[in-house]
Specification:
Blueprint: H1 3-8, E1 11-16, H2 27-40, E2 44-48, H3 50-59, E3 64-67, H4 87-95, E4 100-104, H5 111-124, E5 128-132, H6 136-144, E6 149-151, H7 169-178, E7 183-186, H8 192-200, E8 205-208, H9 210-213, H10 215-232
Parallel strand pairs: 1-2, 1-8, 2-3, 3-4, 4-5, 5-6, 6-7, 7-8
Helix pairs in contact: 2-3
The protein binds N-acetylmannosamine-6-phosphate.
The site of N-acetylmannosamine-6-phosphate (LRY) has 15 residues, from strand 8 and helix 9.
């Protein structure tokens, strides 16, 4: 088994990402988040854009799953491919130091295009690929096209995938049963016990983002609960 995959086995990857409209946006802050994640016991990181990845790489020695999100004011996140959409974006994060490149492998793009992109990355860059998918069928296809890891990242974020406010355990389980590749559980994990359930469903590793690195959402979760409590008696 590949040495990097061994390091990630049964481990926690912390996603450190903040868009321009988020209070923690900026590479310095993401690097600090990365250090905090390492102190807390993360075995890997997920980061977005070359500058953030470079800064996180400099600040820690943890392996990085790199992505490059491309979006503008016309982007519809349920319709468009935004996670590492092209070879050029993959190459940029590879040059920045990503150890694994994650890319959208949903059927929002044709299978042929996805297959070609995977082939080009595999043949020109010495890097592992994580397929961000939303359904079992997409996971099976991505595995056939030669990715190294399949991730549930986009379940709930394509129009045709299972919509849920919590993690998609069924998808983790089905992928683990049907695909002979490590499965990364990702998306809407907020509780340690949810994470354990993902491993019981067959996950190789787990990636958690918002519940650890988006303080505005962490605060909102508490504030929402408090509002609910405060309005009950009215
Ligand atoms: C759907 C999409 O674009 N997900 C992104 C992928 O990189 C990130 O915004 C998520 O934070 C990440 O997947 C981790 O998930 P969660 O934050 O739920 O733990």
């Amino acid at each position: 088994m590949n040495e990097l995959l061994n390091k990630l086995k049964n481990g926690l990857i912390v996603s450190c990402q903040a868009f321009e409209d988020e209070p923690l946006h900026g590479s310095d802050t993401m690097a600090k988040m990365a250090v905090a994640a390492k102190m807390g016991g993360a075995v890997g990181l997920r980061g977005c854009w070359p500058n953030d990845i470079k800064a996180m790489k400099k600040a820690t020695d943890l392996p990085i799953v790199g992505i490059y999100k491309v979006m503008d004011e016309n982007t519809d996140v349920s319709r468009d491919i935004i996670i590492t959409p092209t070879f050029e974006t993959a190459k940029e994060i590879y040059d920045a130091g990503a150890d694994i490149i994650a890319l959208d492998c949903t059927k929002r793009r044709s299978s042929l295009e996805t297959e070609k992109l995977i082939y080009k990355i595999k043949s020109e860059l010495d890097v592992m690929i994580m397929a961000d998918i939303s359904t079992l069928e997409e996971g099976i296809d991505a595995a056939k096209f030669g990715v190294d890891i399949v991730s549930t990242t986009l379940s709930g974020y394509t129009k045709y995938s299972t919509q849920s406010s919590g993690p998609d355990y069924d998808l983790v389980q089905q992928l683990a049963e049907k695909i002979d590749k490590p499965i990364n559980a990702e998306g809407r994990y907020w509780e340690p016990e949810q994470m354990i359930k993902a491993f019981e469903c067959g996950a190789w590793m787990i990636t958690i983002g918002s519940a650890i690195t988006r303080p505005q959402l962490i605060t909102k979760r508490f504030a929402d609960r408090l509002n609910e409590y405060n309005t009950k008696g009215e």
